[in-house]
Design goal:
This protein is of the alpha+beta class and about 130 residues long. It has helices spanning about 5-15, 55-65, 90-95, 120, and strands at about 25-35, 40, 70-80, 105, 115. Strands 2-1-3-4-5 form a five-stranded mixed β-sheet. About 35% of the residues are buried. It binds tetrahydrodeoxyuridine (THU).
Length: about 130
């Protein structure tokens, strides 16, 4: 399923809320539960740079901490010329909480999008089945 306009708008609006005083590289996310509830996420940086939390992990952690476990879609937006590419840590967290075939919509500036999935972003993922 392609992303609803509303989900794209939520991820896009999040860009204005990103806390990015160091990189000036805002990222926004919208995670959608199976029931249709949306969780917005932004990247949150820190003077101790390594403590930065990416937008998509913020959205996932917000939802999981509210008891949500079932997700149907993730939208990630950046002001990048090409659709934004999520970092490796976020791909691993997606693989933990989202089904391998869950659609992920990546958005760049001017709304240019790429449709992908969790398993396309992280093939041969390490998950609970490997423990
Ligand atoms: N960032 C995200 O929020 N998500 C990604 O998947 C890529 C990177 C953030 C982290 C940092 O605040 C800024 O982008 C530059 O790396």
């Amino acid at each position: 399923m392609t992303a609803k306009k509303e989900w794209l708008a939520i991820a896009d609006e999040a860009l204005t809320k990103a806390y990015v005083p160091y990189s000036h590289f805002p990222v926004g996310a919208c995670l959608v539960t199976e029931a249709g509830q949306t969780y917005q996420g932004v990247n949150i940086e820190n003077a101790s740079y390594g403590l930065t939390n990416c937008a998509e992990r913020t959205a996932i952690f917000k939802a999981v901490s509210e008891g949500e476990r079932d997700f149907q879609h993730l939208v990630i937006a950046g002001n990048t010329p090409e659709p934004i590419s999520p970092c490796g840590a976020c791909r691993q967290v997606m693989a933990e909480f989202c089904a391998p075939d869950m659609p992920v919509t990546l958005v760049g500036e001017h709304g240019v999008t790429k449709e992908t999935t969790v398993s396309e972003l992280l093939p041969y993922a390490f998950t609970e089945k490997d423990l």
